[in-house]
């Protein structure tokens, strides 16, 4: 089997090089490719994305004008090289975003302003501010009997826990509540999803435990004559949106043994996403353009995933489409490299822990080699690096769930820098690795230029290596890949809860550091929902949206 595959692969390489290649170009080398990676190109690309966001309401979120323009820019600039076959791959997914305000003006202690987060897929309040008494619900609001008659026409205050948010929202509506507020059962805010849009749900927001308890204590001194009145406004967008992956593959090289690398082209709704993941997109875009000066032995496919911020939708869609051909197309992918945030302002040089040495989630066979190759790059440049947890929390998930060796780089999100990391990398211990993570402040000013340049050279180094040779990476062995795929799907399920404490999870692929995200994921699974596709929704939407309204 192995010998035949290798022979066939060799034959294909020869055909590809003569058919699509340019024999006057030299074969790529790491040094030459790295030499073409220039900070000014990275910054110019980042500025282009910033300009696009600025021209489209401050974001590049999926299905919106800012993302469309990002997709067009990637497509146009890569197609113009003539070196790649470039496609835009469309797919449709449900978009949801919203904003909310909540305050009490009638409380004896004066006006108090809360920080509500609309639950994903909540109905809005029809452009009105509801001014209604708030009524506490008994128990956890998981049974109709928990809702007192007084909630009819008013705002129900419900404690988080036991049943999912959709059930609380439905029971509130059934009891006649005009809206519902769910407050956390542990410190911190609640971000969650109703799992789907439905007319059966009352409009619903989440608030922190502290805010919930402060409303409860104010309620203690309220009476039917002097109720505690809250002002609640929810704006909600729920709509199907067409979105695109951009895939650019070298015309030359062995198409049966392909290196795939990717980053996501969308931002959150809350900001322009220049580090997350403008940095990864621009990094691989720059390497793609640099590669056009060379010949390659193996085909290299650059992927720009859409709708990552909604649960890795673009990469999952892509893998699913490939998967529909059976194992043929998947088996052509020899390795996958992922770059999601590579220029964080208070960065670490994080490398996905492919060998499982640090976090006990090893990738498919070969992921250890990919990690080692990145480690060697940093060592050779006299730079430190740290392992980054590798458990399926960015666009590489669909690849490791198909047994494809994977790896990548990650400079960190909202997690604070440890003292040890500050010793290794400089920067500020105790401060987030990216203080502007998923916020309006993730602009061109939010990039560490040195980290951006170094990481992009690291990408170039790995691309040059695998474009020429698979030495050190295993041959494609389908039974082994299937075994590995099963294991990753199982791990993925069993670890859905346990990761919050790990330092370098790409947090926006989880709960955004908020209690609630994992719970959301469990609930989606309970619903029998498309777990892989929806799990991040609750963590990212409605978190910080600044929409002005009157
Ligand atoms: C081949 O490469 C040379 C040098 O980079 C370039 O001038 C020429 O246009 C290329 N030809 C094709 C067919 O790509
Ligand atoms: C973005 O592109 C999609 C698909 O082509 C289109 O339906 C949508 O209207 C575009 N949005 C904007 C704001 O241009
Ligand atoms: C989105 O599209 C799906 C599938 O076509 C459809 O069932 C659903 O009603 C649509 N949702 C909205 C909000 O338009
Ligand atoms: C790909 O297909 C296999 C069966 O052929 C299935 O077990 C696996 O879950 C699929 N993976 C994805 C990501 O769709
Ligand atoms: C590592 O993971 C394996 C399988 O998931 C488990 O059996 C083992 O106990 C774990 N080891 C540690 C040190 O956590
Ligand atoms: Zn990201």
Automatic annotation (TrEMBL):
Pfam families: PA, Peptidase_M28
Compartment(s) where it occurs, according to its Swiss-Prot or TrEMBL record: Secreted
CDD domains noted in UniProt: M28_SGAP_like
SUPFAM superfamilies reported in the protein's UniProt record: PA domain, Zn-dependent exopeptidases
Record region (Disordered): 498-518
Keyword Protease: yes
Boundaries of every Peptidase M28 domain copy: 245-461
Leader peptide range in chain numbering: 1-19
Assigned EC number: 3.4.-.-
Cofactors that this protein relies on: Zn(2+)
Oligomeric form and interacting partners: Monomer.
Protein name, UniProt field: Peptide hydrolase
The species this protein was found in: Apiospora rasikravindrae
Lineage, opening ranks: Eukaryota, Fungi, Dikarya, Ascomycota, Pezizomycotina
């Amino acid at each position: 089997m192995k010998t035949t595959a290798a022979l066939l692969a060799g034959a294909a390489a020869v055909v590809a090089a003569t058919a699509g290649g340019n024999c006057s170009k030299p074969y790529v080398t790491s040094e030459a490719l790295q030499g073409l990676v220039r900070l000014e190109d990275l910054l110019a690309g980042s500025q282009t994305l910033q300009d696009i966001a600025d021209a489209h309401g401050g974001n590049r979120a999926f299905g919106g004008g800012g993302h469309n323009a990002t997709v067009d820019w990637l497509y146009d600039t890569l197609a113009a090289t003539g070196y790649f076959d470039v496609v835009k791959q469309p797919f449709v997914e449900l978009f949801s975003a919203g904003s909310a305000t909540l305050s009490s003006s009638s409380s004896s202690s004066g006006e108090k302003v809360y920080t509500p987060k609309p639950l994903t897929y909540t109905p809005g309040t029809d452009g009105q501010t509801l001014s209604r008494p708030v009524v506490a619900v008994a128990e956890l609001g998981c049974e109709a009997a928990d809702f007192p008659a007084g909630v009819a026409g008013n705002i129900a205050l419900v404690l988080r826990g036991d049943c999912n948010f959709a059930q609380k929202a439905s029971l509130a509506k059934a009891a006649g509540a005009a809206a519902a507020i769910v407050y956390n059962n542990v410190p911190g805010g609640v971000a969650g999803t109703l799992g789907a849009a439905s007319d059966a749900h009352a409009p619903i927001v989440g608030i922190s435990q502290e805010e919930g308890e402060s409303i409860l204590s104010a309620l203690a001194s309220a009476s039917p004559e002097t109720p505690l009145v809250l002002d609640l406004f929810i704006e909600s967008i729920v709509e199907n949106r067409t979105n695109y992956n951009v895939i650019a593959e070298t015309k030359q090289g062995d198409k049966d043994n392909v290196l795939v690398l990717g980053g996501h082209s969308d931002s959150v709704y809350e900001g322009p996403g220049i580090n997350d993941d403008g940095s990864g997109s621009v990094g691989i875009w720059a390497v793609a353009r640099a590669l056009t000066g060379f010949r390659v032995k193996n085909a290299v496919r650059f992927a720009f995933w859409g709708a990552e911020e909604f649960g890795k939708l673009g990469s999952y869609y892509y893998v699913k489409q490939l998967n529909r051909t059976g194992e043929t197309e998947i088996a052509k992918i020899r390795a996958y490299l992922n770059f999601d945030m590579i220029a964080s302002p208070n960065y670490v040089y994080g490398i996905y822990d492919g060998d499982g040495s640090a976090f006990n989630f090893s990738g498919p066979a070969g992921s250890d080699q990919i990690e080692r190759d990145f480690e060697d790059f940093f060592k050779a440049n006299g730079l430190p690096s740290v392992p980054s947890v590798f458990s399926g929390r960015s666009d590489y998930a669909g690849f490791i769930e198909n047994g494809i060796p994977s790896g990548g780089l990650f400079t960190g999100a909202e997690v604070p820098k440890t003292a040890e990391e500050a010793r290794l990398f400089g920067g500020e211990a105790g401060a987030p690795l990216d203080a502007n993570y998923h916020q309006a402040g993730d602009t061109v000013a939010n990039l560490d230029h040195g980290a951006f340049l170094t990481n992009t050279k690291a990408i170039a180094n790995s691309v040059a290596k695998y474009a020429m040779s698979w030495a050190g990476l295993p041959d494609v062995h389908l039974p082994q890949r299937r075994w590995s795929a099963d294991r990753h799907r199982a791990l993925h399920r069993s670890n859905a809860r346990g990761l919050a404490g790990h330092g370098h999870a790409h947090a926006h692929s989880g709960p955004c550091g908020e209690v609630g995200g994992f719970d959301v994921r469990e609930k989606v699974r309970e619903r029998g929902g498309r777990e892989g596709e929806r799990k991040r929704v609750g963590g990212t939407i409605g978190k910080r949206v600044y929409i002005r309204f009157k």
